[in-house]
Amino acid sequence: MGIPKPTIEEILHRDLNHRCPEGHPCVRVSAVAELPTRFGEFQVVAFHAPFEEREHAALVKGNITHQENVPVRLHSECLTGDTFGSLRCDCRDQLELALMELARRPVGALLYLRQEGRGIGLENKIKAYQLQEWGYDTVEANQALGFRPDERDYGIAAHMLRSLSVESIELMSNNPDKIRDLTAQGIRVTGRIPIEARPNPHNRRYLETKRLKAGHLLSPAMGPVLDEQVDCLHRTANPPRPARVRP
Ligand SMILES: [Zn+2]
Ligand SMILES: [Zn+2]
Known about the structure:
By secondary structure, the chain is α/β, with parallel strands linked by helices. The protein has one domain (8-115, 152-234): Rossmann fold. It has nine helices and seven strands, in the order H-E-E-E-E-H-H-E-H-H-H-E-H-E-H-H. It has a seven-stranded mixed beta sheet with strand order 1-2-3-5-4-6-7, with helices on both faces. Strand 2 and strand 3 (55-61) form a beta hairpin. It is globular. It starts with 7 loop residues before the first helix and ends in a 10-residue tail after the last helix. Bound molecules: zinc ion (2 copies). One zinc ion is lined by residues 18, 20, 26, 159.
């Protein structure tokens, strides 16, 4: 019989006094609880980042510690998409597809990284939207604001995976840069699981820009339509008229 795998609760105790040297991206597992969700049963793990204002989180399915080929989604926070249901991007679709996929599997994790707007922050993301209303695409808008097209940094994500003692991952992503970045951070990526949602009329140009300018591996025949998309695709195609009430 092998050595029993530590649980996340044990990692919580192990991490109590964890701190990397100043200047290195650092997180420690700071709380863990069961989290039943509309997608299935997960554990939610809070990560404290001693050198940042932000806290990060992971949703974990099954026991992933010391496992190989763990399906992992890195999701960067998107307030407008994840919470408000914005149609300008596909973040919420990808979040939901990833959680549905993880719920079907015995093990896996979604890391929720607090790097809003591809790392430029909420305020700048909204400014970039304003520029897009004037005709810029998503990459040009970020550049006009003085940012690189993508300011995200996966050093924290790599540390989170190490904190969770994951041996190797299959990355749920369409973005080859993420695989390169994680590999550069010392994470073993053994495969890729595509995550594609059907575009809507508002994010079609955004997705096309991601494919052409940012090298995302999106196929022209996109993935399934999500239940809640049916509504918004329908709404966009056929705006409902107010019901007429007879006097
Ligand atoms: Zn650390
Ligand atoms: Zn988004």
